[in-house]
Amino acid sequence: xxxxxxxxxxVTLFAIFYYFCRLVLKMTVMDRKVVIIPTYNERExxxxxxxAVFALDGEYHCLVIEDGSPDGTAGxxxxxxxxxxxxxxxxxxxxxxxxxxxYITGFKWAIEQKYDYIFEMDADFSHNPNDLPRLxxxxxxxxxxxxxxxxxxxxxxxxxWPIGRVIMSYYASVYVRTVLGMKVYDTTAxxxxxxxxxxxxxDLDKIRMYGYGFQIEMKYSCYKxxxxxxxxxxxxxxxxxxxxxxxxxxxxxAFWGVLGLRFRKIRPKAQKKL
Length: 274
Hints:
Blueprint: H1 3-28, E1 33-39, H2 46-54, E2 60-66, H3 73-83, E3 88-92, H4 99-112, E4 117-120, H5 132-140, E5 146-150, E6 158-159, H6 163-180, E7 192-195, H7 196-201, H8 212-224, E8 229-233, E9 236-237, H9 248-261
Parallel strand pairs: 1-2, 1-4, 2-3, 5-8, 6-9
Antiparallel strand pairs: 4-7, 5-7
Helix pairs in contact: 6-9, 8-9
């Protein structure tokens, strides 16, 4: 037997085996990702948004935080859970308890379940599910601890909003940047991807605001705790179906809450002693 031929065959087989093992290992250590979707009266959108997320490559899971919608949103999610039993989860709460508390409930659940990347996303398609991989890559490959789907980091990218609402939202972010000194263009954005370690570090029980103010407070907490924040440009499209949950009180909370936030000390969550 030709010695060179013998060793050549074995080297080739070894190379094939090596790359096969790497492929299997990559598949087995795939990052665990969950998209948290708070809902209240979203029957027109909820099935479509869930199916759109599950159509993406990368095995995304969904957690719906349902606040007792009288329109039957929860029933639609329950039916879909029979179709996607390993990927779709729901926490039902009694009454409309607020956006901030919905996300905090979802964050705590996701931390317990050991998800690596945790997303915030609206149910009404104002956040395009196709942008989820871009947020994920900003964290998993780009080194961000928090990736923000930003309407304002590349001009103004908002469709179908009245001009008054665009101006109010844009200058709200200018106001927040000025008061807090935080270099984030879209401070009220609600389309985000966190590394789990960020949410493990923030003391979620001490987050005080619940509407737009909640989004600002979470970003400011990340900023003050030294995490890397990256903005990913997106196009925000106003909802086509369902009813907006926006109200004047949400803006009021954000305005006055930011002033108080400027003088608060943000400390990491105390670690439990073993």
